[in-house]
TrEMBL record:
InterPro entries: AAA+_ATPase, ABC_ATPase_HisP-typ, ABC_transporter-like_ATP-bd, ABC_transporter-like_CS, MetN_ABC_transporter-like, P-loop_NTPase
GO terms for cellular component: plasma membrane
Keywords: Amino-acid transport, ATP-binding, Cell membrane, Hydrolase, Membrane, Nucleotide-binding, Transport
UniProt organism field: Streptomyces calvus
Location in the cell: Cell membrane
EC identifiers of the protein: 7.4.2.1
Membrane-topology annotation of the record: Peripheral membrane protein
Protein name: ABC-type polar-amino-acid transporter
Enzyme class: translocase
Domain ABC transporter: 18-252
Family of this protein: Belongs to the ABC transporter superfamily.
UniProt main location, coarse: membrane
Length: 256
């Protein structure tokens, strides 16, 4: 892979990067996030797993403020989440997000997809932004696709472009919400490998995934959610070999 720095500050910087304290969120009568306390250290890779509907996506969406919260607090790098305007755009750039559906701009080329935000939000000049975009596209193995449009790429390639686009903004933390679950099986590994490499490079990552191989090899910690709560937190080894809660035991018996 091409040498290009992805983390805004080196791995040498330490301390808590993402801190959720007593976060609650409702959708009408549904209490979708209940008293969530979660602290993610710089450079840490946390895998979030749990049954469908347990609040994993909502949790991710609150961290880059695609959803508001009803009570509690969320801070990124010591700062509370901004409410609107330029501050919010900068926060979204600090928190890179990769969704299940690739969400690329369909009418922009791959290169434009990875260049735009750098120019608009990070105020880079176009040439520098394109240079970084090309380096990142090379890094995720799609450098040869730079002039194509998203629809001309495979799902695995599109998802790698989506990762490059998020990285282009020099995020402090990357959120991945089931990044491989919409992919054909033969494309899953090419995306997981890019994520593995990012983890090795020291990127702080929150990853919602049911890919247990990835969790075992890349995660520092597994967070298990059910019914809007964090039910269990453990090292991957501990969690997979010796889950403590009945909910986790039941969940693992269904997916492993
Ligand atoms: P997960 O990602 O773990 O499957 P989600 O966070 O997507 O769970 O959803 C948690 C619960 O919140 C589900 O019951 C879902 O139907 C509900 N939900 C999610 N988004 C909304 C929304 N925008 N409006 C109403 N209910 C929602
Ligand atoms: Mg989800």
């Amino acid at each position: 892979m091409t040498e290009v720095s992805v983390a805004k500050e080196g791995v040498a910087a330490t301390g808590d990067l993402v801190v959720l304290k007593n976060v609650n969120k409702h959708f009408g009568a549904l209490h979708v996030l209940q008293d969530i306390d979660l602290t993610i250290a710089r450079g840490e890779v946390v895998v979030v797993i749990g049954p469908s509907g347990s609040g994993k996506s909502t949790l991710c969406r609150t961290i880059n403020r695609l959803e508001t919260i009803d009570s509690g607090s969320i801070t990124i790098d010591g700062k509370p989440l901004p409410h609107e305007g330029k501050e919010l755009a900068r926060l979204r750039a600090d928190v890179g997000m990769v969704f299940q559906s690739f969400n690329l701009f369909a009418h922009k080329t791959v290169l434009e997809n990875v260049t735009l935000g750098q120019v608009k939000v990070r105020k880079k000049d176009k040439k520098a932004a394109e240079e970084r975009a090309r380096a990142l596209l090379d890094r995720v193995g799609v450098g040869a696709q730079a002039e194509k449009y998203p629809a001309q790429l495979s799902g695995g390639q599109q998802q790698r472009v989506a990762i490059a686009r998020a990285l282009a903004m020099e995020p402090k933390v990357m959120l991945f919400d089931e990044p491989t679950s919409a992919l054909d099986p033969e494309m899953i590994n090419e995306v997981l490998e890019v994520m593995q490499q990012l983890a090795r490079d020291g990127m702080t990552m929150i990853v919602v995934t049911h890919e247990m191989g990835f969790a075992r090899s890349a995660a520092n910690r597994v967070v298990f959610m059910a019914d809007g709560r964090i039910v269990e937190e453990a090292s991957p080894d501990q969690f997979f070999s010796n889950p403590r809660s009945d909910r986790a035991k039941d969940f693992l018996s269904k997916i492993l």
